[in-house]
Amino acid sequence: MSNEQTPKQTQADLEQQMVDLAEVEDAKLQAQGESLSQSQMVRKRFFAHKPAVISLIALTLMTVVSFSSIGYGIIPGWWDKTFTATGPVIDGGRPTMFQDGQILGEHPFGQTQMGQDYFAQVMYGMQQSLIIAFVVGIVSTLIGVVIGALAGFFRGWVESLLMRLTDIVIVVPLLVLAAILGQMTQGNVWLLAIALGCVTWTGLARLVRAEILSLREKEYVAAAVSMGASPVRIILKHMLPNSVGVIIVNATFSIAAAILLESTLSWVGMGVQLPEVSLGSLVDYYDGASQTRPWLFWFPGLFIIAIALSVNFIGDGLRDAYDPRQKRVGDRRPGLLQSLGLRGLNRAQKERAETDSVPGQPGQATHMVSAAEPKSNPLRFRRKK
Amino acid sequence: MITSILNAEIDYDELLEDAEAQEFEFTWEPLIILGIAVALVIAYLVASRFIRAKKDLRTSVFELQRAEFDTDKALEFRDVRVSFATEFGSVDAVKGVSFDVGPGEVVAVVGESGSGKSVTSSTAMGLTAENASISGDVFLDGKNVTSMAPGTLRSLRGDEISMVFQEPMTALNPVLKVSDQLTEVLQIHGKAFGTDALAKSIELLRAVGIPDAENRIHEYPHQFSGGQRQRIVIALAVANNPKVIIADEPTTALDVTVQAEILDLLRRLKDESNTAVLLITHNMGVVADMADRVVVMFQGEVVEQGPVKKILREPEHPYTRRLLDAMPELRSETSQEEQREILQKAKSEQESLSAQESEYALQGKDLALAYKFRGKSNRVVEGVNFGVKPGEILGLVGESGSGKSTIAKAVLGLLEVEEGELLIRGKNLPTLPRAEKKALRREIGVVFQDPAASLDPRFPIGDVITEPMLVHKVGTAKERIARAKELLDAVKLPKDVINRYPHELSGGQRQRISIARALSLSPSILIADEPTSALDVSVQARVLEMFAELQEQFEFACLFVTHDLAVVDQLADQIMVLEKGRVVEYGRKDQILRAPQEDYTKRLLAAAPVPDPVAQKQRRDARRELLAAQGLATD
């Protein structure tokens, strides 16, 4: 980012006296308050992105509830039923949530035909799905970053070898590869997650490689090379931190994709297998019951959508926060209405407000120059030498 | 029935036999239809090509008509204010600017970055960024542009008002032929269509001085040189005989000799068509060459305006005065006698030099450098010899593509030496083992051109400066910080900058940080690759001053790469002039700048504009004569 974007709260009086640009700049530097690092600015921008923050809260809530309710492993939770224990089927297994004046009731999500508590089952499935999602995200990101960075930095035969390897993984249909590896894991969730991670790194590897290739041309990398820094130092200290935006954003999107991939695999019966359950396999078991006992189908389905959506929104927020080229202001700033595709509504409100106010005041447009052709402005991409 | 089917065993053999018994008949029908389709397409392509070749282009003559004006002011800005809404609140870029441009007049808007000169001009075409809000009025020949509907504005753009951009490569669409782009301008505004438009475009290209226009018009932008591209952009701008042309830094991206040509072209077209030209530039030499009147802007306000002679010779406002003082001066006019004297001195010096075998900090012997692309190597530098003594500055001068930066890259170890020797303090760099090479890196510091890209945006300034020490494991963390503070003092920046990040600094400040980083290991050699070409004049003056001071203090040998002869005049001891990878002239500064022997050096010197309208006019005529004497076309 260039200095043009830094806040210029300069005092008019001071400016009158100073007529040397260099002096003005130095004075500005003195006058500036706290300095923000890039990561601090990213954090600030991310928290200004409402849908992302709401999604982050929702995802945290879902994670906390799913792990705390029935516990994980030997750690007990606050819910008194387990996902395997059967009991008497009450009222045809209908959900007791918000019935007869109670909030949760005995079986908030209902019961299966065998009388298992469905809330416990969905929570357990959610645990498994979240574990898979995050492990896949971490594994695929690690592999992708390492392969992409090596290929991009060293070029030559290293690049051709690694990128051809990537091509081979890409040309085999993802679902086939995942299904074969999924079968081999015997339904173990952790192994399955690692296996899925090993087939979904390709996209990130290509992106990281492209990013590293463009960073190689930067002068600060050339400066590091000429001062004698080792390749390891250049990659770890200069290149990866500067491509962290691409990496983090794609990691979040790969998490969302992993949830859907696991659900797909489980749904075709190649992923998580009984007695383990995941959200996908629950949908698979009970898709026949969508007419007779719809709650058995809807609850896990809704949670899949909720998790995937919130992870996607978080990824959106991160992308906006990391991409300083998208200087979004006014009604283009990401907000709730914008994310839901209702930018026009927001703009109409603003315009109405604007016509009420007195035109011609500084800081207020008397006409919309840009709204008519927001994308056709050639000056936006001009390079200043 | 159902059960019998279910119970019946499937006889696979029988099924197979059934299948084999079925004959698949080969049918011609689909192939025939496909064939007809292909034949039609080919026939169309051949026929269209044939027709196009046969058809004689009607020689429609393009003439620059004189622009007609309804009022006596072609363009008028009246109290224009622009502010931008940013993340950090609104920023006032232009604070009440008023001036006008008359028909056939060239008004130059001068200012440094952040002065609002480009923003002001973009309001005239309604091209301000989307987060801008504008107040005030801009009149184009009496019509108020700021209150115009988008449709009307569009019909105005390229017709009554047009623009010449800074970067010719990005101003032209690389995937469209030049012919398409030129006819587009004519067709959009209904001036000419079809072959008529093409014929007009060819005439247009001829008018801007592109040779062999009727064939070259069918080429793509990348097939033209930088100067020719800018000529095409100018052709686009004048195609519809506009009333006003806005030229936004039209020569900043070009070499000096090309710059002179482009300015000549603009002047000729303006004189022929009586168009008003709004010239935006930071180069006072260009102003002196082109402008009738000058508007000086600073921080969004007009500080001074008036006729060019008055502003450049007797500036009133202190800012204008400082701006003119900051321009590095090139003194190249010399009398015959002086030249003879200089030459004699140079000769005697050379004799004494060859007598004593001196110690060079950096020496190149028959250096040949090449870029490798897909196994093929492409020589860009050939047979270059030079030597820099400790405490000396060698200026590498040349136009783009001359190989001056390539030499700097080779010294930095960013490029393999293909042939010849590159001696750093007597040791040949290419043949050294890896460990010694790394040790030698301590002796070389570097300052790059682009202040935006030369510092890692994720490193605080302190880390940037101490990085070379960290790489070479010099000192403890505390000592390194102390050294960083010392260096910040040397480049006159406050010590608390240590915790700030590059994006908070301006271009000039970042370049000073680059210099501090380069000096952190007290190197004996410093490579400066166009360190000031991206900076504003006053900032450049500051950085150059500091550079000279530091050079005196640290006594490093320096390889200073630049395209600006005036900068070299201020700093260098020796100068090497390069053209297309070969040395044209090499010697002491006085000899090269004051008594040049080679034609190319003379041309280079003649093309550099000076910030004085009268002197510049003389130089322009002198350049014409020189080109004529060397048998070269003058446009």
From TrEMBL, chain A:
Membrane protein topology class: Multi-pass membrane protein
Localization, UniProt: Cell membrane
GO terms, biological process: transmembrane transport
Name of a matching Pfam family: BPD_transp_1
PROSITE patterns given in the database record: ABC_TM1
Record CDD domains: TM_PBP2 (cd06261)
SUPFAM superfamilies, per database record: MetI-like
Keywords carried by this UniProt record: Cell membrane, Membrane, Transmembrane, Transmembrane helix, Transport
Transmembrane segments: 53-75, 130-154, 161-183, 189-208, 243-261, 295-318
UniProt record similarity statement: Belongs to the binding-protein-dependent transport system permease family.
PANTHER family: D,D-DIPEPTIDE TRANSPORT SYSTEM PERMEASE PROTEIN DDPC-RELATED, OLIGOPEPTIDE TRANSPORT SYSTEM PERMEASE PROTEIN APPC
Name of the protein in its database record: ABC transporter permease subunit
Species: Nesterenkonia alkaliphila
Automatic annotation (TrEMBL), chain B:
Gene Ontology molecular-function annotations: ATP binding; ATP hydrolysis activity
Protein name: Dipeptide ABC transporter ATP-binding protein
Compartment(s): Cell membrane
Keyword Cell division included in the entry's annotation: no
Predominant subcellular localization, coarse grouping: membrane
Gene Ontology annotations of biological process type: peptide transport
Assigned GO CC terms: plasma membrane
Domain ABC transporter: 75-324, 362-605
Keywords: ATP-binding, Cell membrane, Membrane, Nucleotide-binding, Transmembrane, Transmembrane helix, Transport
Organism taxonomic ancestry: Bacteria, Bacillati, Actinomycetota, Actinomycetes, Micrococcales
